[in-house]
Amino acid sequence: MEYRDDVPRGHWKKSQKPYTIRRKPISPKTLSYEPIYVETSSGTASNNDTWKPREETNLIANAESEFPNTSRSIKPSSKSQISTSYTDSNVSNGLLKATENVKVAGIDEESNHKGCVAASWRPTWLRPLVLAIFASLFLFLAVALVVMLWYSANNSGLFESHQSLSHTYVWRFGPTAFLTILTIFWARVELQAMMYMPWISLRSGPSLGESDLALDYTTMLLPLVFSRSFRRRHYLVFLVASISALLKAQIILAPGLYSLTELQVTRPIDVLLQDTFDSVTPETTYTPDASVYYRARAQYDFNVDYPYGVAEGFAFQTFYTGSEFSRGTVANPVTATVDGLFLGTQCVKLNSYAILEQHNIANYQGRGLYMNFTVELQFDGCEEPFIVPHFDAWPSPRLNATFWGLQTDSKVARPCSGLPLQAPAFLYYNGVFKLQSDNSSEYLHPPAAVICEPHAWLSKVQVTDDGLKPTVMAVYDERRPLFTPNIMTMFNNSLPPKDIWHADTVSGWTGPLSVDLRFRGHATTEFPEVVTTDMLQDSSQNITRRLGPFASHYHLRQKQSSGGSGTSLQRIVRLTINPKICLAMIALFIFNAGITAFLLWRYYHDTSVWHRDPATLLGNSMFLSNHPDITNRTAEIKGPSPDWKSGAFTPLVLKTTSRVVFCIFTILLASSLIVTLRHSETSDGLATIDEDGYLHLMWTSFPATIALGVSLYISSCDWSYRDLATLYHLSRSACNSCDLDRSLLDMLGLRALYYSFRYRLWSVTVSQSLALVCGILTSLISIIFTVEIIPGSTPIQFQQKTWFQIRDNVGYELDYTAKQEMFNGLWTRREEGSLTYPENTFDNLLFHDLESIDILDPSKNLSVAITTPATKVESQCTQLSEDTYDISHYNTTTTNGTVAYYAAVVVTFCDPGNDKPRRIKKDIDLGITDPADPLGSIYFSGMLQTQANPVVDGCMLESQLAHSNLTTALYPTYVWGAFDPAQNNFSFVAVWTCKYSWVEVDAETNLIFSDGRLAIDPENPPRPDMASMRPLDPTLDLNTWFAMYPEVDLGGTGDQFKGVEGPFRPLIKPYGTLDMSAFGDEGQQADVMQDIYHNYALSSAQLANVVNRKFITAESGPAPAPVVEATVYDNGRRRLVQNPTITYIVVGILGAVILFNIWALVSALIRCCGGGDSWLLDMDARGLAPDGFHSIASAASLLQNSNVATHLPPGSEMMSSDEVHGHMHGLDFRLGWFRRECDQTRHYTIGVMGDPAFHYMGVRRSSKRASAGSFRKESVLG
Description:
By secondary structure, the chain is of the alpha+beta class. It folds into four domains: 1-17 and 120-257 and 578-615; 276-567, no CATH class; 650-790 and 1136-1184; 802-806 and 837-1130, no CATH class. Strand 15 and strand 16 (442-465) form a beta hairpin.
């Protein structure tokens, strides 16, 4: 064999053909030994261990292509007749060395080249097709991730999913499991690259170094593999191992690749429009409805939600979805483009004026100064002046004699270019006559006047309805004028009775200006002394702006259904991809694809190792028997290795120290999981996780890394067991050629598991089973931790800042009355919109103001649970029996023939200790019957109010109306019922007496941040504990009913509902929730009492919040300021939660791993103590093979003295496996000590059983115990 030691292997040209290892030429003639049978006296034949040489010819050639004319079949040998072929009967130095006595055909250099046959066998996982599939798969995964990343970025995710733990687990477990499987398959590539790299190097050139012959990557740790492969330029191993490491890194990254994100998407839906504004005509009439005013004021004062169909500045068509007429929801709001009705007022101002004529009468009919005058008003934008006659009388002294005018409808028909004149306009003016400085005559102070035209138009608006607070998304510019009747008339029918003005003139402050001032909470005393034109214009426009949307909603909306289209903003969960992790994985996949493609190109020819697999024990024998030069070199390099005979090598992972350390680690890991699970269940999670950042990799990738370490150790144990399985099987029992020609290490897991059962290699069975189970351990543990929203609590203290005190000034004042009227709007139509109560109040509960806590972050989703005293008005009511009151009725006939009915109620109150009762009388004007139903019931209700308790003090105090503005308790007596005109009698009467007083109760209250301040959560209202109710000390002044209720008109004729007095009117629809018939229904007494009490208590609490709240100072309030205990809840707290089910599965797997290792340790201990190993789990791997036993040198060391090669059919390396095994059928092989009979030398090797010339002595340990060291390698003959 020619060597080129002068040229370094690394500098060979790439174009040079791979070096082809020449096999030893096959001799056309070999010597064969066959037994000599001797006939005994009994007539039987016996060989007596005597063998004679036999010449065999025409054996099969080395290869069909090399010796095409000499190949033929050979009959397989059997146990009964074993033919052992030797090249020399007296040879003593090995079966694989060259012969001396056999004639060999003259083989010169040229014939040797002709005898070389190119290698055709490749390792399965290093074949070009396999590498091309892997390269394509890596590239496909990279492209797929690129597409998914682009699609996710442009479509807010990949596709819809569900926000549940199961789906979360799928998208964490799935990618991890897929990459785990991919890594398992690539591990086969890595194994075969490590296993066959020395053979590839041997084929690549003749200058194979000593270290390469002794090289075995399969027993090295990964860092050592990288180091040695790179140093020896074995780039196939280096790059394949690099890909394997990168795939493991991708397994760690995979759990964080996908995440479920909640998004909102828009989808088209059909909507059903419920009404329209197009059908409004100028002939439309208006029913008085004061709820327009009160609802508008409630929205203005308390930010009450608009009713559905009203938005700021306009009213819009209402719409529904589905057959059930459902609205949108917070989770799925609905958006539609509908008609919006807008109202506006355009005005022209007064430019100049003149008095055309004036007549004064000093004292006209005793009424005072009478003035009859005509004023000419000239306005900007109007071509002609307006002539306005006016007359009125004022009492003396004649100072500031004020006159008002309001002319509406068609009386303002002059052409004005400054107005569109598309709707009726109105003239609104004011003037003041003052005395001259010498008091001689009156003069007209510059008057104020405007001409305004309220008009309406329709525009398309885009409205989003979430079922609670519809919002306007867009208003389009296109306008469609709406010809409506006089809008000021509509407003006039939307006001409380006291604010309604007459058609032509207004008296005093009645009119748009007074309505606007009262609307904004001004008392009469705060009205301006001098009115300007700007005031009149602003008030007219303010009324339109503030009342217009509500008036359009209640007056101009017409029921008419029609179809339409809209969109639904639906809250969905989409699978999104993490950009940074995705980019990292894309780069790794591209890198892997590039490396694999490079390997495919670079090692396309080099992976053709030989004619068949040379790495199995049978393949080693074939290769070395046909290439004695390699055997000679290994003998020169290493010699017969003593490691096979007396070595004590044990793979690192199977050493007792490694097992003990790993067992302790696994026990700690399983215990930690159990401890953390208990902590997670008892502490609502393990830790609080921020939403931003990449900290989530700690609970996805870090556990996956630990689990990967456990899985790698079990895989390493399984690797070592499977690697030693064939040798262990050979050392324990006889094997056939098929067993010798296969390696459990080079099998996929399930196939190796099958053969472990077949060979009864229980260590391999258990380790392989655990390796398969631990293959999903990484995927499972990647989903063991999830993030859930779990509110967290922290105790905290608040200090009270305010307290409640009786007003300093309790006299009757108009501004106090204005404050009382401010809350009237809270009574009407409460069900049409949510009420945002003033700070520190909720409904009829009044709370102390607490100091703000700076440490609380308003930007977080925090809430505060607090049990704090709440102040409220409590009622104690009793129904009076019929013997405590008298009720009578009478009627009169009016001039037009209508019958009017009246009632009188007398209630008797008496002190039980006093014999003098007191009687309180109440006259009630029942009104007239309904013209449409003259025989229908007439309903009535009224109130008898006393300042003191009539039950206790009625016998000693005169009955008096409670007009005082200072009382700490109120004792109203309510009476209501129904009168039947047909029976001319009462069909039902109820009389209740109540006591209203201030009490204090403990209320569980939830506070949330609103505009940076803590406020009561309207979605989670306070829950008062009525068992803790106690009188308020010190108590507060309690308002009387005066100005505490809204003035509303119930419709009908003017006298039809006279019998229903003020406080009861807001209880009736449309203002309240009751029908008029409730006053005649005995079953609704509780509803009537509850509604009237609630309205009063609501207004009282809201009023006290304004006038009775005081700050706690050194001079006022309790000292020290009370401290209130509270609990702060972080409702957006993202907690890391450990899943119990996954934990139990993982702990179960770890438990099996622990039991496996403990059993192995116990097995090793029992074996050391001399116990049997028939049932032991641990494979006795100590000294079974030397370190690096897969190297070519180790194989040559083990097999150079074996008789296996002598039983190989000629040209076996060119045969198929089935042919080889067919020829060797019936041969049994063992690993152990053999004695060569010809020279009586002892050899530790793999040999054929039943060969008389090569006698099997036993396994290593048994033979040593039997011989006690008497065997020596040298001959025992001489």
